[in-house]
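Saturday, quiet lab. Running sequence design on the structure tokens for the scaffold JK sent over.
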């Protein structure tokens, strides 16, 4: 009598054991995923955490549940479909719904393995998303006259780093994040074929390590821009210091969009990333094979894996890739 509750709990546990572990909940899956799978720079951790937490919050709204009370064992296909339909009814694009579903699916799969519940099925696996195969029209390539005006505006008013980045984007087809995150050690101008090495590092995570890690040859204006950037920042940690920190890509995107792109075009589908779509069109028009195009731009391609991307095999392709890019330059 008079034993404090915490001591009473210890006494009961010593005499009777802890009993059966409680069944894991959706909330447990979220917490475990955030703890064990979300990593990288502070910016990336914050971005990924917000994305995963958002979809679990929407799941709670769609299913009218408390995720810390709803057991994984009670999760059914009807719940997965209800969340999918709820997201679509909110006007979220199918491509974004697919990404959100992938996030909650990954978290649940991780929990089922790590919490020893592999006997349970994940109802989000192979969940069809209506219109999932519809083309993504969020971005369009710049019309030639618009691109010429943007080029002229950047040449006239941009700071040096923006000018050099823009030239390298036009000459390589890389993503803006890939160029702004280059370090002097990622640039080789002494090889028979000068190139940049797009790869993961703490200052910049590539979109997909397997496919986006690659060697890209440098020719023409892109080569000259890389040479000038390297000359000015040879002793620096980065090739473009003004945009290298974890918020650098946001500043670069904002600068390119507001100071240059929007001065020429108000079409919301015209954004700095549109230049990458222009480059793809140039490769197609020059007759560059799909295989070499994917190697240059870092697109996933069936049958190609890390034996090609980011490896010495890919590096051996540099002379061929340079010849393909020369076709683009000649046009």
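Result came back. Writing it out in full:
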């Amino acid at each position: 009598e008079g034993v404090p509750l915490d001591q009473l709990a210890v006494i009961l546990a010593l005499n009777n054991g802890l009993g059966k572990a409680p069944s894991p909940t959706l909330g447990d899956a979220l917490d475990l995923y955030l703890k064990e799978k979300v990593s990288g720079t502070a910016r990336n951790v914050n971005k990924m955490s917000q994305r995963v937490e958002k979809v679990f919050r929407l799941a709670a709204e769609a299913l009218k549940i408390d995720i810390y009370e709803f057991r994984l064992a009670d999760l059914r296909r009807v719940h997965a479909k209800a969340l999918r339909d709820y997201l679509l009814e909110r006007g979220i694009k199918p491509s974004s719904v697919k990404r959100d579903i992938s996030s909650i699916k990954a978290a649940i799969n991780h929990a089922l393995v790590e919490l020893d519940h592999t006997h349970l099925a994940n109802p989000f696996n192979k969940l069809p998303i209506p219109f999932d195969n519809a083309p993504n029209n969020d971005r369009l390539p710049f019309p030639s006259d618009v691109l010429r005006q943007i080029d002229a505006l950047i040449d006239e008013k941009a700071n040096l780093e923006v000018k050099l980045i823009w030239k390298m984007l036009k000459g390589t087809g890389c993503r803006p994040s890939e160029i702004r995150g280059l370090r002097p050690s990622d640039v080789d101008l002494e090889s028979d074929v000068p190139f940049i090495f797009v790869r993961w590092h703490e200052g910049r995570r590539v979109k997909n390590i397997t496919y986006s890690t690659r060697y890209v040859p440098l020719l023409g204006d892109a080569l000259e821009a890389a040479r000038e950037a390297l000359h000015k920042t040879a002793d620096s940690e980065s090739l473009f210091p003004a945009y290298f920190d974890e918020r650098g890509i946001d500043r670069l995107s904002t600068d390119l969009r507001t100071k240059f792109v929007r001065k020429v075009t108000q079409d919301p589908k015209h954004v700095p990333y549109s230049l990458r779509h222009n480059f793809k069109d140039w490769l197609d028009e020059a007759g560059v094979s799909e295989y070499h195009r994917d190697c240059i731009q870092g697109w996933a391609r069936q049958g190609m894996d890390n034996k090609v991307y980011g490896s010495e095999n890919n590096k051996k392709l540099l002379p061929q890739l340079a010849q393909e890019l020369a076709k683009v330059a000649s046009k």
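Notes for JK: The chain has a mean pLDDT of 87. The two ends are 91 Å apart (CA to CA). Ask whether to fix the surface positions before the next round.
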